[in-house]
């Protein structure tokens, strides 16, 4: 089959959506299918030759971090590329911009249309707009439901998100398919010497407790909560460091906030890390921290469990799906004090957690095979 993807963000901007699309493309390619991704142009794209990517004209606001696709100014070339590729399925990942373009082209060419729901848009937008009125909320949900109901299939990453979409009026068939995990990097067993080496590089003492956050440094990720909580945690654990992995538009502001809270000596800002290095950082950590309430699944949560480390997460649809409270982690209120109390309790009771995680369920073959069968049912 030939499958074309339309997305509003992709590499080099690192995000859960980008990771998810890239993983699915590779999984489908391994099964013999061809893929083409229509994505924004970030100027410094660094696309590999083995990837089929069309970079649509875009407004570059912050290179590599934020680029707004403008498909209306690239319409003819997009159509010509689509016709030349001759897709059997159009798979969109947002209900606007590139997603809307993909929908129009799928409908006009009688091609089956699939939509993956990645983001809790209402919760996401509340981080940037103060209005939390019922009118605003209903308008967002109506937009998502209307878009979804014009698709042939909607993919949700979890059962809870499927129920969420059905509750807000999505009547199109919804199937649950989680984002997969690269088994070849998470199956590796690391030697103590490898962990000692990275501790030495980061100047982390063997007696230090290590907390880990992996994600985009952006307002919707609720990262400030971690810093406020850390100030409280340090009252109980002096020998402790927080590894902050990722980059984003708020990183300077967060660094200033850490300095203001007088915790900057206990925070290590690691910036972007290659994916094959992430499992080593997970293995180094005692706890994984997840403050976001806007994610639909949180790929990093699966990665933390794959590395067998407990999770402390703010209650959300994503966290409550993956974190089994008091078994593989703890759930917290969206409150720095409560989050700090949960982290403190976990650090004092690390041996009480039991983590059982099936990597094979999230393998490229399992995920790719499931999605390709869903595609075939639409043809």
Keywords:
2 domains, Rossmann fold, seven-stranded parallel β-sheet, six-stranded parallel β-sheet, 15 helices, alpha/beta
Could you provide a short overview of the structure?
The chain has 379 residues and is α/β, with parallel strands linked by helices. It has helices at 16-30, 75-85, 98-108, 121-125, 134-148, 159-167, 183-186, 192-202, 224-233, 251-260, 278-284, 299-306, 317-322, 336-348, 364-378, and strands at 2-6, 34-40, 53-56, 58-62, 66-69, 89-92, 113-116, 153-156, 174-176, 209-214, 240-245, 267-271, 287-290, 311-314, 329-332. It is built from 15 helices and 15 strands.
In words, what does this structure look like?
The chain has two domains: 2-180 and 363-378, Rossmann fold (3-Layer(aba) Sandwich), CATH 3.40.50.2000; 183-358, Glycogen Phosphorylase B (Rossmann fold), CATH 3.40.50. It starts with a strand and ends with a helix. The chain has helices at 16-30, 75-85, 98-108, 121-125, 134-148, 159-167, 183-186, 192-202, 224-233, 251-260, 278-284, 299-306, 317-322, 336-348, 364-378, and strands at residues 2-6, 34-40, 53-56, 58-62, 66-69, 89-92, 113-116, 153-156, 174-176, 209-214, 240-245, 267-271, 287-290, 311-314, 329-332. The strands form three sheets. Strands 3-2-1-6-7-8-9 form a seven-stranded parallel sheet, sandwiched between helices. It has a six-stranded parallel sheet with strand order 12-11-10-13-14-15, sandwiched between helices. It has 379 residues and is of the alpha/beta class. Helix 1 crosses helix 15, helix 8 packs across helix 11 and helix 9 packs across helix 14. Strand 13 (287-290), helix 12 and strand 14 (311-314) form a beta-alpha-beta unit. The model has no long low-confidence stretch (mean pLDDT 92).
